[in-house]
């Protein structure tokens, strides 16, 4: 039996085991497989690991999307989370080339994916509070928001959670050094049902001497205990 003789449900199941590139390549072989590739039901989960992946046409955004993860782990992309005043000219040029990539992508998600349940962003140094605000407004079913090492995220995002995150159950702001203890406490008070985690956040000073980091960590633990 040829693969094209399988029914739509079986083909969707087979496609679900493939990564985005493999799905795209298989879709090029015939019209029937292209239709399967374009079926919104196939795209309930998306994972991205580099800025280049967001520019490819090997995926589909739509109402079926429930789980989205954008995580940068390469050393080059980590440059975006260095303080601007510490970047050399090469690093600044590198950042400028993809400054709006994630932000523009999230705006597309806001417009096309109203049923999003989970959003994870890690190392996305150019994502702003306004991006997260728009996601919370346009994706009212969002239950999990996990942010890690997103340098521009601040208490404005925490305030947006208290105002628009009515479905939110999990909030992580790990290594988001521009959120404060006051902002975290506001979330705890106004959204007691939200599971809040903020490891190495709240007044964390980046790129400081080890002695300073140790002092800040001890102070942070004492505040948590109080």
Automatic annotation (TrEMBL):
GO terms for cellular component: cytoplasm. SUPFAM superfamilies: F-box domain (SSF81383), RNI-like (SSF52047). Keywords: Ubl conjugation pathway. InterPro entries: F-box-like_dom_sf (IPR036047), F-box_dom (IPR001810), F-box_LRR-repeat (IPR050648), Leu-rich_rpt_Cys-con_subtyp (IPR006553), LRR_dom_sf (IPR032675). Gene3D superfamilies: Ribonuclease Inhibitor (3.80.10.10). Residues 9-46 form the F-box domain. This is FXL22 protein. It comes from Daphoenositta chrysoptera. The lineage of its organism: Eukaryota, Metazoa, Chordata, Craniata, Vertebrata.
